[in-house]
Amino acid sequence: MESFSFSHWGPSYSFKHDAIKDCAKTMPKEKWGSFNCEKPNRFYCYDVILINENKTWDEALTYCRENHRDLVSITDRDQQRWVQNKAEMADTPFVWLGMRYSCTLDLWFWVSDRLLCYHNWAPDQMAECGMAAVMERDGKWYTKADHEKFNFICVKQTHWYMQQAYSSLICICFLGLLNGSSSNKEITN
Fold first, then answer.
1. What local confidence, expressed as pLDDT, does residue 120 receive?
2. Hey, which residues does 49 pair with through a beta bridge?
3. Mean pLDDT of the chain
4. Given this model, what pLDDT does residue 157 score?
5. What angle do CA 127, 170, 163 make, to 5 degrees?
6. pLDDT at residue 144 greater than cutoff 50
7. Which of 17, 59, 114, 138 is deepest in the core (most CB within 10 A)?
8. 155 forms bridges with which residues in the sheet?
9. Could you read off the pLDDT of 101-143 as tens digits, one per residue?
10. Which of 115, 135, 125 is nearest to 176 (CA)?
11. Is 60 helix (H, G, I), strand (E, B) or coil?
12. What is the pLDDT of residues 81-107, one digit of tens each?
């Protein structure tokens, strides 16, 4: 068996062993860095599954909630990449996402109760009653009538401690900017 080694350490990495800096994380620009394991850091707890069955948006939502956790919500670029990788394997040109348009509130919302801080809309998408969001295999989001049938992506069921972490990761938007426009701002803490 052949062994190999791969590393992608950034300039802040210390080759000197430091008992306090025993953990690694991905840094901006996707380099690795070492950090103090005692210091709180953000992390992802996100597991998605592609369901290669054609269902309406409501049927997909019900299926995900009964068999996994929910239809997928995408709140940042990393989650976008994970979901897009799954969407590329779909049997249909689009996959349902867990986002729907509310005529009453005149806004798009994630069924997971996450705020719409990140988006990847294709140009000229409509916001009308009876519309839900889909992702094309190339990752762009489109609006489709919720009675159409597509494959869909669920968030897998996680353990309790992971659910707690998952719910604390997502961005916070200014309440006045909930309509998904490009003027949305993300608050980072």
1. 96
2. 154
3. 76
4. 58
5. 115
6. yes
7. 114
8. 48, 70
9. 999 999 999 998 887 888 999 999 989 999 999 999 999 999 9
10. 115
11. helix
12. 989 999 999 999 999 999 999 999 999
d(CA 151, CA 41): 35
- What ranges make up the beta strands (E) of the chain? 23-26, 32-35, 48-55, 70-71, 94-102, 107-110, 131-136, 141-145, 150-155, 172-173, 186-187
The pair of structure tokens assigned to 59 is 């049927």
Q: Which two tokens stand for residue 102?
A: 């509310």
Give 153's contacts (C-beta < 8 A, 6+ positions apart): 48, 49, 50, 51, 71, 72, 83, 86, 87, 95, 96, 97, 135
Tokens of 189: 């803490």
Residues 103, 136 contacting (CB under 8 angstroms): no
Residue 14: strand pairing partners: none
- In 3D, which of 42, 56, 48, 64 has the Cα closest to residue 170? 42
